[in-house]
Amino acid sequence: MTAPASGPATAASGKLNTAEATVFAESTTRLAELGRNFYGRGWLLGTSGNFSAVVRREPLRLAITPSGVDKGMLVPSQILQVDENGSVVDGSGKPSVETALHLAIVRLRGAAAVLHTHSVWNTLLSEAQAAKGGIALEGYEMLKGLEGVRTHEHREWLPIIENSQDMAALARAIEETLARFPKTHGLLLRGHGLYTWGNDLAEAKRHVEILEFLLEVVGRMRNRVQR
User: Fold this and answer.
1) Does the N-terminal or the C-terminal CB of the chain have fewer CB atoms within 10 Å?
2) In a domain, 2, yes or no
């Protein structure tokens, strides 16, 4: 699902045109489905995790999950629409406190969807590998599920960023990291979780599945070696 281009009148008024309104409605349904799906896999328990999808590029509008909501019970009516500053323009509630991080990734990667999970394995490995600055994933057939990857010989580097409650500072750290690693498909916040993205929600979902699978494989292998 790709956000349609805005016409001049619509962009000037800030209101969604009919096609964009349809994209927003479809996005709320898809994001709610992803919340329940990922909750069932144990990737975002409690109120953890957040998702977004681009509704319009100019001016930027995102459909994004609200703060403090159990994603296993997420429904479309809870999804908010925010502008390029992260301010709510449609819906009631508070957007994810990490909205600034979504906006940074959308701008730097041109992503149409950003997904953030808090699984056991991505949390453990982001701590265990923090001193190395990232995690190398290579030699696995599953890597071919990442956009643009054609061989298991690919080496995917997932950078690890120190976590912070200062979202502006964390957004800047993400921007710097993405500039340093322009080919990465995701990143980890230390002790926090995985961020990945895609050209649409289907691609972003696939990237979550691939990276969560590989992180669990790496984590289980580390445990076997250490026994």
Assistant:
1) C
2) no
Contact 81, 62 (CB under 8 A): yes
Q: Which residue do the tokens 């997932």 mark?
A: 158
What gap in Å lies between CA 4 and CA 215, rounded to an integer?
34
H helices of 41-98, in order, are none
| 158 CB burial (10 A radius; 0-12, 13-18, 19+) | buried
In order along its 227 residues, the chain shows pLDDT tens digits of 555 544 444 544 468 889 999 999 999 999 999 999 999 999 999 999 999 999 999 999 999 999 999 999 999 999 999 999 999 999 988 998 999 999 999 999 999 999 999 999 999 999 999 999 999 999 999 999 999 999 999 999 999 999 999 999 999 999 999 999 999 999 999 999 999 999 999 999 999 999 999 999 999 998 777 76
Amino acid at 221: M
- Report the predicted TM-score, pTM, of the whole model to 2 decimal places: 0.91
Q: What is the DSSP letter of 203?
A: H
Number of structural domains the chain divides into = 1
Long-range contacts, stretch 90-97, CB < 8 angstroms, 24+ apart = 90/24, 91/66, 93/66, 93/67, 93/69, 94/66, 94/67, 94/68, 95/64, 95/65, 95/66, 95/67, 96/50, 96/52, 96/64, 96/65, 96/66, 96/67, 97/67, 97/167
Q: Match 């993405």 to its residue by tokens.
A: 178
CATH number, residue 206? 3.40.225.10
What range defines the domain where residue 94 resides? 8-226
Radius of gyration in angstroms for the set of CA atoms belonging to the chain, rounded to a whole number:
17
